[in-house]
Every structure is written in structure tokens, then in C-alpha cells.
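User: Quick sanity check before I run a bigger batch. Here is a single chain. Can you write out its predicted 3D structure?
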Amino acid sequence: MKIAIAQLNPTIGDLSGNAKNILEAARQAAKEGVRLMLTPELSLCGYPPRDLLLSSEFVESMSKKLHELAQQLPTQIAVLVGTAEPNPYATSKGQKPLFNGTALLEGGKLQKIFYKRLLPTYDVFDEDRYFEPGYQTNSFTIKSDSQSKIHIGVTICEDLWNEEEFWGKRNYEINPIEDLAELEVDLIVNLSASPYTVSKQKLREAMLSHSASRYQTPIIYVNQIGGNDDLIFDGNSVAFNRTGNVVCRAKAFASDLKIIELDEQTKDLLPTAIAPLPETEEEEIFSALVLGVRDYARKCGFSQVVLGLSGGIDSSLVAAIAAEAMGAENVLGVLMPSPYSSEHSITDAEALVKNLGIKSQKLPIGDLMKSYDRLLEPLFAGTEFGIAEENTQSRIRGNLLMAISNKFGHLLLSTGNKSEMAVGYCTLYGDMNGGLAVIADVPKTRVFSICRWLNRTREIIPNNVLIKSPSAELKPGQVDQDSLPPYEILDDILERAIHHHQSTAQIVESGHDLEVVDQVMKLIARAEFKRKQAPPGLKITDRAFGTGWRMPIASRWLPPNPSN
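Assistant: Done. Predicted structure follows.
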């Protein structure tokens, strides 16, 4: 029996467009003799729909579109479609209003619907805000073309992520995979919308392989691809036979339709094409960010982007990502030198423009700075040059970029990295201006490694950008290390504090200086008000400053200094 994996890129809320993509994939699969097609979690409405689910009109429109789709599908194929289903017992039993469901469509009708049993409430997930968990083990029987009966178990995303033998603990009371194994299903399918983080596919495949071999049951995992706000979905749909070996893998970061065959005698999946994984983490991250920029722009209605080019490594990387995502002809880089800008910053930015083939404009800001100084002179009289004057430069640049964005309808990309965002080394209403923060989840040391990877075959990022000391160039002779520890030290401290929740004492025990750690921890806490006002940033780690980061601003908590 042939089964199709439809690795789709839904647009949140575009019910008609998403249904059309499902229908086109089903028609193509039907021509190939496919009996069952799988689509991702909530494939009809896109994931995550968030508070669109609070609109009764949206939910009703989804139900209507689902039934229309059922009638349009080829009659010889059954399709599993992700949808949100109203809970009829919500009011009488005090339950949540919806189920996160998967509908079995066949023969022009909705034949059956299955409900997600495990609802994640960590990081970016808040599904129990909307959904009631399913309480039944989900399975159905389908007849193959030869009339053999195949018993298929259905799981939805998180339902797979509670295998205590793999994790060493149980995160939920029930284990849907274990329940399906007790039913002796022939095949387990999992319909997912699993956001991308660095090297997550290796973890997914290790977990899926373990479950398939433990329960001696083949597993097909289908994931969506695309960028939806701050979240990136990498696809990499994959299938394992009953011994836990990969027999099929779809493309990474691209839509795909894979057809795999279930042997009706052995009830096992037969090997087929296995798409390769990215060779390095740098390649993987670059591909993810390109997809994130392309989809954010496309789904928000932008065809061109603009960004400031400082001649530094951050804006150079963002420009390279933008050129790959949008096409070089659709990227405008704006050089805005000040009297404090070094000559090499200008020439490095110009070299980058040439290497990428993007458009550029130069807008010197010296005269604007003088105008600001004259206007503020009476008020600032008797004070010394300081952070207010430094930030004025950044805010002039931010205003110019926003003017260009408004005038020409370009999406403004901001260029700050995660290290800067973590400690507040960025200017509110200045370099933080923008509609999308492309590398806001990429630490500075990783920015360097990605740029070196980009230059593996030819110079894309000018070599001088890679070797010079990072600087905001807001005052004479300034370098980042005047205000911050070296990035190798800073990024390790940030990794330990943000990702691993280590205390000051634990970080010091790892070999870092107490005074430096204490400074960094204070900077992280004090910069929260800036992060709350930042544009959405593309998420590539499991602890990004986005929808999953929920720290208070008005807080007096600081980690205790172990020397006190």
C-alpha cells in the first residue's frame, strides 16, 4: 500500500490557500496510486494559529472548508488533515472549547476525527489555552487496493514525545505510543508542526528510531515547513521501519511530497529515497534563516527588503541571508556613515554590496548629527558627551531606514545578534527598528562561524569584516570590548545562564570570573524592557527572546552574588 507524506507550507489563517495545497498534493499522490496521504498538524489553518482560535467565525469557516475539501478530494485516496474541532462538552463539563484534531477524509466525507492527547505548555507552546486533550487511543482501519486491512495508529506531534525509556522520565501521565502498541497497530503515523532548533532533527530521529524498535512498529512522521512569525519549521519528515532504521526522509526547509510503500505481508515500510541532512550546523542555520526571512516577507505581503549596512559582521550576514531569501535585486542596503565611521567600514560595506550584487544607497548623517546637537545644546549645556549623544546617531539611522521602508513599502530587517539582545547592547528606536530581527537568536560567535562557512568557496563576506574588532562606531576608537567581555566569554556565560539556567555560582565554578559573571547577569535582567519592544526574531534555539521568553520587566530579582 502506498502512503504519501505531504510536507506542506501552510499560511496561518489562509483556509482556502491551505486547502488548495492539500488538494493539489492529493491529486498528485492519487496519480501515483497512493491510498493514504498524511499532512501536518493543523494543516488546514496553519500552526500556530494562536488567538485566531478564539474567533468562532474562524473555527466555523475551518469546519466548512474541511467538508468542502472532503468533497473535492479524489475518491480513491484517504487523507488525514489537521484541523481544530469544537468541543461539544466545553460548557457543560467546564472544558476547553476546542480539540486539536486530525480528520480522516475519504469518499467525499469526513469519516472520523482524532484528537491530540498530549498538549505542550512549555517554551512557545500554550495549547491548553485553547484545546481539551483527547482521552481516546486513536486508530483506524483502511483497506488497501488489494483489500488487505491495515490498522493505523494516529498521533499528533507531542503525542510522540513522552517515551520514558528514551528520555529517562515521563513528562505526562499517559504515553500514546505505548497505548497504540497495546492495540497492535500495523503502523503509527504522527502529524506534526515541530518548530526548528539547531540539530533538532538528530534528536527527533533518535527518539523515533527508539520508539519504532522498542515497539516493533513502523512510524511515519510528517512535519510542516515554512516560517510563521518567529517560528521556523524545517520539514525533514521521516519514516522508520519496525527495526528503527530510516527508510525515507523528505527535504529540509522545502516543500516535498514523498511516497513510501507499506508491505502488506510483513506490515513494514520499504526503503525509498532518503534526502540528505545539512552537512554542518552553519549550513542548517543559514538555510533556516533564509526560509524564515522569505516566508515572513511573503506571508506579510513584502517583495523587497531594506537594511542598514555598517560594514560590520552582523549586517553583512543579514544582507547575505536577505539576498538568498529575496533575490539580490530585491535587497537595498543603506550606508549611513557618521564622522566616527572608519574608512574601512565604508569600503567593507561597499565590497559586500558588490559581492552580493544588491542595491545600495549612501546617506551620510554628519549634518543631521550637528542639527540634533544644536537643538539639544541649551538643554544639554554643562553635561559631557555620553550615551545620549551616541544613541542619537543610531536613532537617526533608524529613522532614515523607517522612512525608506514607509516610502517604498520595503520590509526593514534589523541586524542585532543574540549576544547584544541579551545584554542590551543595542539602541531602542535605533538599530532595533525593524519588522523582523533576522539574527536575534544567533550568538555573536555563531555569526562569525556562519560567515566563515559562507566564505568556504569564495569571498562573500569581505575578509576584513571577519578579522577586525567589532564596533558600534558611535564615538572615536570605540570597540565592543570597551563595554562587554570578549564574545567567546560572553557567549559561554549567556549559554549557561539562558539555556541551562545555571546560577552565578555554577557559572563561576565552570571557570569564569565572578565580577564578569555578575556584570552579565545584571545586564540580562536590565535589558528586558528593550527585548519586549524588539521586532519578532527568528527562533533557532530552544531558548529564544521571543514568544517562549516570558520574563517580567518590573522586577527586582537578581541572582545572588556568591561572594556576598
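DSSP finds 18 helices and 20 strands in the chain.

User: Great, the batch can go ahead then.
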